[in-house]
Amino acid sequence: MKQFECFGLDTANQCLLCSGAPVDLAPKPFAVLRYLVENPGRLITHDELLDAVWPETYVQPQVLRTYMLELRKVLGDDAGQPRFIQTLPKRGYRFVAQVTEQRQAPLNQSLRSRRGGPVVDRTEELARLNAALHLAVAGQRQVVFVSGDAGIGKTTLLDAFCGQPGSQQAASVARGQCVQGIAATEEYYPVMEALRELCAGPDGEAACRALSRMAPAWLGHGLAPQGAAIPPLSVEAEKRTLGDLCAALEELAAEKPVVLVFEDLHWADDSTLHLISALARRRAQARLLVLATWTPRQGRVEDQPKVLMQDLLMRRLCMELELAPLKRAAVRELLSAELGQKDLPPGLAEFVYQRSEGNPLFVIAVVEHLIAQGALVRRSANGNTAWEQCAPIPETEASVPDALARMIELEIERLSEEEQRLLEAASLMSVAFPAWAVAAALEKDPVETEEACDGLARRLHFVVRAGQDELPDGTRSAFYVFAHGLFREVLYQRQSSARRARRHIRIAERLSAIFAGREASVARERAMHYEAAGDHERAASVLHAAANAAQQAGVC
């Protein structure tokens, strides 16, 4: 990696980075920039540059002028007062910025995290994390928020990043875990965990020395060397400890770059958030990288990590890495890595992709569930062992893996009884559900129900407001979607059969009222709800009436 100011030229991955973010640059302009950066400080003539980028091909020299204009636009450079590319009229160009060589760990699609989990489809994210580390090593403090749904692979990504060859030698790495329920009773819990790891690690002596000089109050929190006498702190001293800790970390980073990792920031206490804010805003140069993972709309109602991140983003003091679900090809790759074989049973990858919707945690859970059910069996033949499909892989009505069902149940049980009933009623429709149907199932006021659904969508990561529908009577009703079908299935199955039946019938009757005079247009939906309620006679009657109406319309 060639580093110049905030830019990084990643020759291995053929891309230009700016403050860790990829910059769009076509291959030929990249090749021109690469040759200039690899030969800094000296005159590169037009002929030399043309021969290097277009060997054995005649190209008009004027094309260089076009590429230089594009490169200056990308770099924010000024030809009159160049920071990067100096033009020497009728002779050539010179790259005038200072270039440093940064060691870069190899980035693979098949990296494995420190805890053993495979890392797939995260090459760009790893590249951006490495670019942030390179900037931090150069003295530009960095704060990176890694966000995404539960199970999307945030911890796995950071495990792989921190476990890259040479990472422990290049920087002091310390991690702290935010834990649900502790924020209200113990300040700085993840910070103290990270400091203990620093003080107990290979660079522990330097860490204790920096804390002793710059932040002695923190040594009184169980970090002091054994046998050291720590006087009691005054109230005034306690008020100064946040700034003292920042100074101590900066002093430690002067000896060796420091990487602080805080996981599950949605459960963090306010003091920990204040520390991250202070570290991001301090102006002095520091070889410091702060990485924080968080799940949007999970944890506290006010979602303070999001408030902090948005404020720092607006001031260009941090970067967000939002992890997206895996694509089909990546799910196949993850399955191959987990099962240890390239060729997968027919239909397995597509089935797992549909069930997991690209969530890595769900991918593994679905596979383990299929193995437990006996649908996948490991067999030996001709000295080779491979996983084979033993029973038909269920394409519909597949049960939710036990581990995932328990995880989802825990999230649901954190909600109030009223909120749980709201979500259960929502699950009676499909992955998408309108507020009016929830109101009908619960026999509630539609306006109040929509407001309650809006509140859940703001708080929960697995419910999202998707838009509004206009009903036949001219009224409008918001509709929402479950971020993952498995959440909907758990909510549906946790209701008793009798309760589900009553609610399905109410929705069917409400459909009939909404579409009065046009019942045939929603006959299929009404029949589906009657059938789900076990009222097969009424379901058949609805479909029969719709068929008669269609036949009469055809005769006319």
How would you summarize the topology of this molecule?
Layout lengths: L1 E3 L2 E4 L4 E4 L2 E3 L3 H11 L6 E2 H8 L8 H14 L9 E4 L3 E4 L4 E2 L21 H15 L4 E6 L6 H9 L4 H4 L1 E6 L11 H12 L3 H11 L1 H4 L15 H5 L1 H15 L2 E6 L6 H12 L6 E7 L9 H11 L4 E4 L5 H12 L8 H9 L3 H14 L2 E6 L2 E6 L12 H12 L3 H10 L5 E3 H8 L3 H14 L3 E8 L5 E7 L2 H9 L3 H18 L8 H10 L3 H20 L1
Parallel strand pairs: 9-12, 9-13, 10-11, 11-12
Antiparallel strand pairs: 1-2, 1-8, 2-3, 3-4, 5-7, 6-7, 14-15, 16-18, 17-18
Helix pairs in contact: 1-3, 7-8, 8-11, 12-13, 14-15, 14-16, 15-16, 17-21, 18-19, 19-20, 19-22, 22-23, 23-24
Short description:
This protein is α+β, with helices and mostly antiparallel strands and 556 residues long. Strand 14 (376-381) and strand 15 (384-389) form a beta hairpin. 38% of the residues are buried.
Structural summary, described in words:
This protein has 556 residues and is of the alpha+beta class. The protein folds into four domains: 2-101, Arc Repressor Mutant, subunit A (Orthogonal Bundle); 123-226 and 239-322, P-loop containing nucleotide triphosphate hydrolases (Rossmann fold, 3-Layer(aba) Sandwich); 328-389, no CATH class; 410-555, Winged helix-like DNA-binding domain superfamily/Winged helix DNA-binding domain (Arc Repressor Mutant, subunit A). The chain has 24 helices and 18 strands. Strands 4-3-2-1-8 form a five-stranded antiparallel beta sheet, with helices on both faces. A hairpin with a 2-residue loop joins strand 14 (376-381) and strand 15. Helix 22 packs antiparallel against helix 23 (523-532). The longest helix is centred in the last third of the chain and has 20 residues, at 536-555. The radius of gyration is 30 Å and the shape is globular. The model is unreliable at 104-116 and 225-240 (pLDDT under 50).
